[in-house]
C-alpha cells in the first residue's frame, strides 16, 4: 500500500469516528466564580440559585461548575484561568472586584465568553451586567423612615464604590421624604463577607441609637444582632426568610435567573454578543421581598406603591432638585440622574453628615 | 461624643475569641511548639460548637463540644510533629487548610440555622467573656508558680536539657498542643454562638492569625495577651463606632495599628537580643525546633 493511501484511509477513518461526536451536540460548559460561599445566605447564594435555574432550564445541554469563596485579588485570575482551561465556554464572574482579573483572562482566551457582574470594563468577549439596587433601596428607605422611632437609621456598607453609594443616597433620600427628622449613620466594613465584622458593625450602629438599618454586605449576621437588640433590618440580596417577621421586615432580592437563562441560551444558539446592561425592578431583576406584618398596613401600601411607580418608570429615585453633600447643586427641579452619573457616584447627597471615605 | 463604657463592652465581645485562641497558643509556644493551625482549630470549634449548641439548645454544651473538637484536630498536628517529626510550620498551615475545608464540607446542613440564645452573666456580659478574662491569671499562675508550669517552660527553652533531667518532653508538648486546640476551639465557638449566632463557612475570617500575632506582641506573657486582645479588639470596635458616630477617621490607619504595634514589638525583641540583654520578652529558645530522643 502506498504511503499516501495509507494516510488517506487513516484520515478517513479518523473522520468517520469523529462524525458521531459531531452529530451529537456538545455540552456547553458554563463556569461561575463566587466571592463568598454559596451558603452565605445572601449575594453568592442568589447567584448560585440562578446557576441551578440554568441547569434546570437547559438540562443535558449544559454543564455548570462553580468555584466559591474566591478572593478579589490574584487568586481570581487563577480561578478564571482554571475554569477556561477546563473547557468552560461561558464564565460568569460575580463580583465587582473580579473586574481586572476578568479582563486579563479574557485577553488570553478570546474564544471564551465572559460575563462580569457590576463592572464597567468590556471587550468583544466580555459583557457586563448589573442590577439597579438603588431602586430597591428607595423602597427599603421609605419603610425605614417610617419604622424608626429614634429617627436614626443605619447603613452597613461593604466598600465605598458607586454601587454601594447609590444605595445609601437612595435609601436616605426616600427615608427623608417620609420622615424629615431622619438621620443616616454609615459604617463601612471594608469586606463583602465577614460575619463577625458585620455583626460588630451592626452592634456599633445599634450602640449609636440606630433602630432600623440596611446592609450592603452579604451575611445574615447583622440581622442576628438586630434580633438581639430589638432593632429592624432587611434581607440583603436574598430573602433571608429565617428572620421573618422580625427583625427582617422586608428585603431586597437580586434575581439573576432570567438574565442567566437568557445569556446561556444566546451562547447555545450563537447569538451572544458583548453588552453592558443594567436592569431594575421593572425587569424583575431587583425584587422587593415580602413586607412582614411588623410593618403597619399603610406603610406597606406606601412602599408597594413606590415600588410599582419605580417599576413603571413613573418615578426615578434620583429626581431633582437635589444637592450634593457639600451643598453644590447636582440635579435641577425635575431632572433625573443619568446612568453615567450613577455609575460613577462618589458623593453623598445633602443631609448625610457622615464623611465620605477617601 | 462616644460613651467609652459602651465601646468597652463591645470591645470585650470582639476580644474574647482572639483572647481564648491566643492564650492557648501561648501555652503551646511556651512548650516550644509553633502551631500555625490556630485558624483551622478555631473554625472547627466554631462548627462543632454551633452544631452541639443547636442540637441540645445549650450554648454551654456547645462550648464543651468546641473544646473537644479543637483538641481533637490538634492531635493530628501533635502526632505529625511529635512522633513523625514533620515540619511544624508546614504542618500548622496544613491544619488551617484542613480545618477550613473540613468545616466547609460538614457545615452545609447547618447553614441558615440560628444558635440558641446565651444566658447573660454579671454586668450583662456573657459568661464566656468572664471565663476568658479569668483564664489570664490562671494561665499566668500555672506557668509562673507551679511545678508543672516550670517543666513546661523548661521543655520550651531547652528540650535536650529537660529530656536529660528525665522530663517527658514529647508528652508535655502533646498536652500543651491539646490545651491550645481546646482554647482555640472555644474561641471559634464564641464567634458562631455568641457573636454571629449562626454558622457560615469561613466565618472566623482570619481571627486565628490575629491570635498568633498577639502572642508575639505579648512577648509570650499571659497579661500581654490580654492587653493585645483588647488592643486588637478595641481598635476593630473603635473604628466601627467612630464611623457610626460620623467621625472622620482614616479607617485603614486604625486597622493597621495593631499590626504596626506587633512589628514594633518584634523589632524591640531582636534589638534587645542584639545588645545581649536576656530575660523576658524573647521567644522560647526551642520554639519550632523538632525534638527527638536518641535512646
Automatic annotation (TrEMBL), chain A:
- Which UniProt key words apply to this protein? Signal
Asked if the keyword S-adenosyl-L-methionine belongs to this entry, the reply reads no
The residues covered by the ABC transporter substrate-binding protein PnrA-like domain are 28-314
Q: Which residue windows are coiled coil?
A: none
**Do you know which PROSITE patterns this protein is assigned to?**
PROKAR_LIPOPROTEIN (PS51257)
Q: Which InterPro entries match?
A: ABC-Purine-Binding, PnrA-like
Q: Where is the signal peptide?
A: 1-23
What is the name attached to this protein's record? BMP family ABC transporter substrate-binding protein
TrEMBL record, chain B:
Specify the signal sequence span: none
Alphabetized, the UniProt keywords read: Cell membrane, Membrane, Transmembrane, Transmembrane helix
Per UniProt, subcellular location reads as: Cell membrane
Transmembrane region(s): 34-54, 61-83, 89-107, 127-143, 174-197, 209-232, 244-269
Pfam assignment, any one: BPD_transp_2
Q: How does this protein sit in the membrane?
A: Multi-pass membrane protein
The record's PANTHER family line, in alphabetical order, gives: ABC TRANSPORTER PERMEASE PROTEIN, SUGAR ABC TRANSPORTER INTEGRAL MEMBRANE PROTEIN-RELATED
Which named protein is this? ABC transporter permease
Amino acid at each position: 500500500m502506498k504511503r499516501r493511501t495509507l494516510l488517506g484511509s487513516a484520515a478517513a477513518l479518523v473522520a468517520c469516528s469523529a462524525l458521531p461526536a459531531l452529530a451529537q451536540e456538545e455540552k456547553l460548559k458554563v463556569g461561575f466564580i463566587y466571592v463568598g460561599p454559596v451558603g452565605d445566605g445572601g449575594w453568592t447564594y442568589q447567584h448560585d440559585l440562578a446557576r441551578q435555574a440554568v441547569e434546570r432550564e437547559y438540562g443535558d445541554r449544559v454543564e455548570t461548575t462553580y468555584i466559591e469563596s474566591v478572593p478579589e485579588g490574584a487568586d481570581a485570575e487563577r480561578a478564571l484561568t482554571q475554569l477556561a482551561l477546563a473547557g468552560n465556554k461561558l464564565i460568569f464572574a460575580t463580583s465587582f472586584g473580579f473586574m481586572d482579573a476578568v479582563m486579563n483572562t479574557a485577553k488570553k482566551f478570546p474564544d471564551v465568553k465572559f460575563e462580569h457582574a457590576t463592572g464597567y470594563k468590556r471587550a468583544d468577549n466580555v459583557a457586563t451586567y448589573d442590577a439597579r439596587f438603588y431602586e430597591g433601596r428607595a423602597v427599603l428607605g421609605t419603610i425605614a423612615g417610617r419604622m424608626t422611632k429614634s429617627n436614626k437609621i443605619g447603613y452597613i456598607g461593604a466598600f465605598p464604590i458607586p454601587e454601594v453609594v447609590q444605595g445609601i443616597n437612595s435609601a436616605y433620600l426616600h427615608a427623608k421624604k417620609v420622615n424629615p427628622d431622619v438621620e443616616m449613620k454609615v459604617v463601612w466594613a471594608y469586606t463583602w463577607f465577614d460575619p463577625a465584622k458585620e455583626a460588630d458593625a451592626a452592634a456599633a450602629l445599634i450602640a449609636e441609637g440606630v433602630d432600623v438599618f440596611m446592609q450592603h454586605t452579604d451575611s445574615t449576621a447583622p440581622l442576628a444582632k438586630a434580633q438581639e437588640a430589638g432593632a429592624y433590618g432587611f434581607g440583603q440580596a436574598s430573602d433571608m426568610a429565617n428572620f421573618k417577621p422580625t427583625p427582617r421586615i422586608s428585603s431586597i432580592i437580586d434575581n439573576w435567573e432570567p438574565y442567566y437563562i437568557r445569556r446561556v441560551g444566546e451562547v447555545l444558539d450563537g447569538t451572544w454578543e458583548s453588552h453592558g446592561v443594567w436592569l431594575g425592578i421593572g425587569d424583575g431583576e431587583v425584587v422587593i421581598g415580602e413586607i412582614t406584618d411588623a410593618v403597619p398596613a399603610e406603610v406597606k401600601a406606601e412602599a408597594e406603591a413606590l415600588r410599582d411607580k419605580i417599576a413603571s418608570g413613573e418615578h426615578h429615585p434620583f429626581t431633582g432638585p437635589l444637592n450634593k453633600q457639600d451643598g453644590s447643586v447636582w440635579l435641577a427641579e425635575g431632572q433625573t440622574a443619568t446612568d453615567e452619573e450613577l455609575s460613577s457616584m462618589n458623593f453623598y447627597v445633602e443631609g448625610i453628615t457622615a464623611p465620605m471615605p477617601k | 461624643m462616644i460613651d467609652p463604657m459602651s465601646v468597652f463592652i463591645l470591645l470585650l465581645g470582639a476580644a474574647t475569641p482572639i483572647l481564648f485562641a491566643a492564650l492557648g497558643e501561648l501555652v503551646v509556644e511556651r512548650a516550644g511548639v509553633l502551631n500555625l493551625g490556630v485558624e483551622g482549630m478555631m473554625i472547627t470549634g466554631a462548627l462543632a460548637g454551633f452544631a452541639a449548641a443547636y442540637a441540645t439548645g445549650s450554648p454551654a454544651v456547645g462550648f464543651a463540644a468546641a473544646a473537644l473538637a479543637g483538641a481533637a484536630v490538634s492531635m493530628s498536628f501533635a502526632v505529625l510533629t511529635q512522633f513523625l517529626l514533620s515540619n511544624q510550620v508546614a504542618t500548622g498551615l496544613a491544619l488551617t487548610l484542613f480545618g477550613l475545608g473540613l468545616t466547609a464540607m460538614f457545615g452545609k446542613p447547618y447553614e441558615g440555622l440560628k444558635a440558641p440564645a446565651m444566658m447573660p452573666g454579671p454586668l450583662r456580659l456573657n459568661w464566656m467573656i468572664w471565663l476568658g478574662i479569668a483564664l489570664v491569671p490562671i494561665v499566668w499562675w500555672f506557668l509562673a508558680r507551679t511545678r508543672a508550669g516550670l517543666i513546661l517552660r523548661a521543655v520550651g527553652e531547652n528540650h535536650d536539657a529537660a529530656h536529660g533531667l528525665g522530663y517527658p518532653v514529647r508528652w508535655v508538648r502533646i498536652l500543651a498542643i491539646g490545651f491550645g486546640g481546646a482554647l482555640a476551639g472555644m474561641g471559634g465557638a464564641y464567634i458562631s454562638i455568641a457573636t454571629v449566632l449562626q454558622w457560615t463557612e469561613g466565618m472566623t475570617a482570619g481571627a486565628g492569625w490575629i491570635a498568633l500575632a498577639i502572642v508575639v506582641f505579648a512577648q509570650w506573657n499571659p497579661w500581654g495577651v490580654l492587653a493585645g486582645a483588647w488592643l486588637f479588639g478595641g481598635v476593630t470596635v473603635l473604628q466601627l463606632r467612630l464611623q457610626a458616630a460620623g467621625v472622620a477617621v482614616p479607617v485603614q490607619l486604625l486597622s493597621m495599628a495593631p499590626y504596626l504595634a506587633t512589628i514594633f514589638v518584634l523589632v524591640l525583641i531582636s534589638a534587645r537580643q542584639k545588645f545581649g540583654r536576656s530575660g523576658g520578652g524573647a521567644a522560647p529558645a526551642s520554639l519550632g525546633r523538632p525534638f527527638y530522643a536518641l535512646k
